[in-house]
Amino acid sequence: xxxxxxNILLASVMFTIGLYGLITQKNGVKLMMCIELLLNSANIxxxxxxxxxxxxxxxxFALFSIALAAAEAGVGFAILIALYRLYGTIDLDSIHAMxx
Amino acid sequence: xIQNAISLMIAxxxxxxxxxxxxxxxxxxxxxxxxxxxxxxxxQMYMEFDKSSKIMQFVESYNWVPSIGVKxxxxxxxxxxxxxxxxxxxxxxxxxxxxGEGKKPNQYFALLLLNEVGVLGVFTALDFFLxxxxxxxxxxxxxxxxxxxxxxxxxxxxxxxxxxxxxxxLVMLLAIFALYFTYSxxxxxxxxxxxxxxxxxxxxxxxxxxxxxxxxxxxxxxFLVKMPAFPFHxxxxxxxxxxxxxxxxxxxxxxxKMGGYGIFRVIMPILPNVDKAWITVIAIIAVLSIVYxxxxxxxxxxxxxxxxxxxxxxxxxxTLGAVAFxxxxxxxxxxxxxxxxxxxxxLFMSAGTIQHVVGTRxxxxxxxxxxxxxxxxxxxxxxxxxSLGLPGMSGFVAEFLVLTGSFATLxxxxxxxxxxxxxxxxxxxxxxxxxxxxxxILKKYMNVHDPHSYELFSMGMIILLSLLFGIxxxxxxxxxxxxxxxxxxxxxxxxxxxxx
Amino acid sequence: MYxxxxxxxxxxxxxxxxxxxxxxxxxxxxxxxxxxxxxxxxLIISLGILKETYPNQIVHQSMHWxxxxxxGILIDPLALxxxxxxxxxxxxxxxxxxxxxxGDPGAAxxxxxxxxxxxxxxxxxxxxxLLQLFIFWELVGLCSYLLIGFWYRKPSAASAAKKAFLTTRxxxxxxxxGIILLYNxxxxxxxxxxxxxxxxxxPVIYANIAQIPPAQLTxxxxxxxxxAIGKSGQFPLHVWLPDAMEGPTTVSAMIHxxxxxxxxxxxxxxxxxxxxxxxxxxxxxxxxxxxxxxxAATMGLTxxxxxxxxxxxxxxxxGFMMAGLGVGAAVGAAAxxxxxxxxxxxxxxxxxxxxxxxxxxxxxxxNDMREMGAVGKYMKxxxxxxxxxxxxxxxxxxxxxxxxxxxxIAKAYEYGVMINFLPYIFLVAAAVLTAIxxxxxxxxxxTGKERSNYGHHESPWVMVGPLVILAVFAFGFGMAAQxxxxxxxxxxxxxxSVNFDELGVIGGHAAEGHEAAGEGEGAGEPWYIxxxxxxxxxxxxxxxxxxYWDKIKRFDPSQVxxxxxxxxxxxxxxxxxxxxxxAWFAETxxxxxxxxxxxxxxxxxxxxLNWLSAWILGLAENVRKIQTGVIQNYVSAMxxxxxxxxxxxxxxMEVGLV
Lengths: 100, 500, 658
Hints:
heterotrimer; B: mainly alpha; two-stranded antiparallel ribbon; 19 helices; globular; C: mainly alpha; two-stranded antiparallel sheet; 27 helices
């Protein structure tokens, strides 16, 4: 069995990459991908702990999370497409109609 | 004896409000009926009311949110009952006065009824939680009445009214919470029961003076803003000037009375337990309200603003009479609440009638209207005379009782009021009367005529009421005399009374 | 039996008020006959009560009203003579008004208001307590306001009405303060009240004056005197009375000459024991009265408006009455009889004079005496009745005014002998001036040449009839009633067992003073003092004739004083009262204060509120810049927050806080 530490390490790395991307990237699609990374790092953690502490709660929770992520991605991409149609770009810095 | 009279009185206008919202142009009939039934009920209650009893009557009490000690408890005693009567009388007269309202009448009458619900609730609630809910319920219809049917600066006035009085209510709510969380019942639970909490404030072990001072300040602030007293009165002229006539009438006749009612119901039982300095503070506020309000009224150019400031001045008598803490002055202050409630109606209705018949309220632009509006002139004259404290009308009885009673404990303040306000009050009333009604009729007003009969009817009724209570003040002072004793004695809770 | 219907004396005119107000518009002459009948009913009941109670009974009825107050009727000699006078004179004036107001579109309103006035005045007179008296006192003020402003379309009438109300209101403030003080002083005594007794009832007040601290008594007396000064047009609150002549002449006759303005005198007479007990109380009364008597008489000399002459004369005569009460410091309770006698006599001849003036004005259509002249040729009845009134006012021997006024002067002499001669000197000077201005007026109006075109006709019988009846009383009342009147009124305070000796000690009056006065009238007066009244009246009339009667005219008034004589200008300007009271005090001081208050309210009280809301808005404007809307910033902030949290918690665990 793969040690728990490795799982957590993998999740941490994924999370950090996602976070870095989230802070530095301007492209909407890239941001969506980074958010997926964050979510999935959390899922890995859930599943890993669930495997080491034998019950299925964590896995159930991960399933919920995946479903939610799918929904979120659906809504998110829909917004991005709408934005693209409106502004011709998905660079978030140039979309600021509601800023002060 | 009618079962659940008070709950019925609160429920019927509420149902009426909902129905009139969907009644379209028939809303006024719904409103008339829905305000007539509470009037009948309150008159019936007057017949059954035990004038010599100091305990709560017509009490109803049900558990509402038992987990936090909230109950639906309503009941009246000599403090609340006259105001209950006032509310039902004024509400129906306002609805009659507004018979010709053409702009969204269904919403208009629904809001007026909702107002009645809130006011009746405030005057009867015996549970702080319930009290606060009704207290806030009143704000909403008034906000919309000003905001939707108001004059040119209605947005400013509505928001100022709402925020100012709402801030005051929140401060009051904090104080109520302080009472709630400090006192626990013998069995360890907490209660919002008004009388129980007020009775507990006398216990120095539970409420040390320092804490009580803070609570007292919060409650006082909430009520003084509502009254309104100097220096928290500035929302009033703005709200009045922009509000529609019916809104002004309800605002002045009923909403201001909530502040005074709070003083008698909540402030007076705590007053003996807080620092004595408070008496001086409140007395100064009262005297300033009276005198300063009168001088302000003299300087106004808009007749409605003049009437608004006169309210500040007259409500000062309530504060003065209350804080003087003699049997006679408290009685006078309570009577002033009632009397001002009646008289101010006719003043605001007059201002409203001038506005819609002539088209302006600026005193300098008016003149000689008595020539074309003789009936209205008689009524307005009678109203102004009542307001300036002419003997034979209710205002005089109230002011005389307050001044005579207050002299015993606050001689200096009373004399300041006598010397600076009595003549000034007469001055601004007569000055306005002369400019508006007398002199040669101006050319541009040759075509004005007496207002609609329903307007004259409601104003005339008020004059008759003022005369009735001026000539036979005993009808109400008998109740208030008992209530004044009650105010000066320690609070007795409902369970001690054996009512529940 | 009549006493059981005493309440009707007020109730009937109230009924007349209601009837005239609501149905008078449809009746001939505005329903004036209703008011006449109502007042006549009052007169009959009053006469019946007189018959029942004379000479030594009183009527006292009372019932609880509200709180610690009652309503009640107290008819003692003082009240009864006032009731009789008021009902009698007012009945005549209402009758006259039926002719005078004929054709005025507001006649119904006139008679309604006149009815209300009658009720209020009568209620004032027979109140049994001070609060009720104050209530009716204010109501007569209201009626006075309404009736002065009867022709409300005239701006001057509306202003005069307002001025009258406000000026008397200033007095009422003092009166109210006096009542409040009195009530609280009495309440502080903890008097054991029998059932049916109330603190502000006159018998209770009389019985307990001696227990009130003297300093408080003086304050109370000054307060009540303030009310009397306002209502009775005494200096310095007399300014409203001449202006009050803007109302119909019948109003001037009824309210501003015969009845309402005497209420102040009546009040002081009613409270006489209190004034007597209050140190300096009567001194103040005497000073105010004597000064006003002379002061107003000088203004009467220069007025051109016939009604203003009579108004100043009224002020002056009221001063006489006040002074008559004031000299009570020397002569004791007898002063009440003397003063009230003049009050009653004055009401007859002054009502007569006003009604005659009204008759003249009705015919000539102007108030200005410079445009009249030779009116007597066409109005014989008016001329001769007015002559009777004028002779009476001037104090011509055998006429009513001679007996009433000169009794006051005689008492003032006693006061002078014992205390101070100033009131006496003032009153004598005022009496001389009275004779002069009265006959200046009479000569100007009725003799000489026609100075303008006017209608040549006598007034109708409804107007002349009352004139004749009043003339009979103006001539004969003084002679006929003199002795009975004094003995009747002197018993007034005996009904309440008022101990004037005890009160006199509190008030600091020499006890032997009124003993001496009681024994013989003018026992110690030298012959020239006794002769003086004859000289004053006849000399004054002759002097006026020399200036104004064309048959014996020797001097021209315009030669005595030049156009620019400062004294003349001051008198014509009425001592610059308008400038001082209206322009300076009312419009500058009071209105200025209110404008300053308004400024404070806008700039300061509301200002800080607006400043607060503006400040919060400004703050929000700055704070919301933090909300950039850039998602990366939010994520960075969250990250930073987590890092800080982790660091803090770790450190805390290290230190051992958690």
